[in-house]
Amino acid sequence: MRAWYFTPGAPRLGVELREAPLPEPAALQVLVRMHAAGLNRGELAPGTKAAKPAGTEGAGEVVKLGPGVTQFKVGDRVMARCPGAFAEHGLMDVRETMAVPTRLSWEQAAAVPLAFVVAYDMVLAQGRLKAGEWLLVTGVTSGVGVYALQAAKALGAKVVGTSGSAEKLATLKPLGLDVALATRKPDFAAAVMQATGERGADLAIDAVGGTVFAECVRALGFQGRLAFVGYVDGVLKAELDLEALHSKRLTLFGVSNKLRNAEQRGATVRGFVADMLPLVADGRIEPLLDRVYPFDELPAAKERMETNAHVGKIVVTLK
């Protein structure tokens, strides 16, 4: 089968199309003929020492069941976290696999498994956001930022979002973005305080990195929560105001699947399926696709993400 690989490179990874053997499903796995796969910034981080299969999420049709699989059958439309998703076939762990809602296209389904589930983890599972509360999202025009915005609005919360592009922010107004702050700098806490009537954000999402972490803390209100989900700025150290942490009774938490096993990831997926997937299935939350590229144009999709030109999810189709 044809499969894309990311190859070592500096400052950016290379990309190479190869012939690879058809994978065989192990216990609790399904072999899927891939129809579409989503591109995520985390997989483009430099530091790869050897070529690795490209892709981390996708959607497709079940073609073979591994031992112990009873939840799905051949022919089912499924979506899931899927290492090596930019290939003609991929393996999905059934503990993380979801049936594709009827109304979703393959491309829309491919945009769900990582960004939507991460947004659920940040906003609901750990963030405990409620109706009437304020959410701050730095880098709100990213895939995970857009879905955090949509989840928050579905809950009845209000959202402040930052981005370096006023034009990108304008595209999110129809999705309910309440306050748009065009900045890449750590200079937004005062504006957040003003927008919230000096209350501060109840939940903040740092999807940018260390350069804005301290500012996110300053923007939080009493008993505020801060989710740290990414560091596109490459900055892994930040100031922590211990007095603010102490006096405001703040909660800081990370959002990553790096050290979690399949059962732990699956528990979050099950929560998403119960609490959020129905909103996607009936159209109350719509996957926002930035651009869809043919399979052979993965290098162009990668270039668009690396130049920060996108709003929402970049998807590659294998139709």
Largest sheet: 7 strands, mixed
Taking pLDDT < 50 over at least 5 consecutive residues as the criterion, the unreliable ranges are: none
What gross morphology would you assign? globular
User: SS-based structural class?
Assistant: alpha/beta
Mean pLDDT: 96
**Beta strand %:** 25-35%
Q: How many separate structural domains?
A: 2
Task: Output the CATH topology of the largest domain.
Answer: Quinone Oxidoreductase, Chain A, domain 1
Radius of gyration: 19 Å
How would you sum up this structure, described in words?
- This protein is α/β, with parallel strands linked by helices and 319 residues long.
- Helix content is 27%, strand content 29%.
- Strands 3, 5, 6, 7, 8, 15 and 16 form a 7-stranded mixed sheet that branches. It has a 6-stranded parallel sheet with strand order 11-10-9-12-13-14, with helices on both faces.
- The two termini are 14 Å apart.
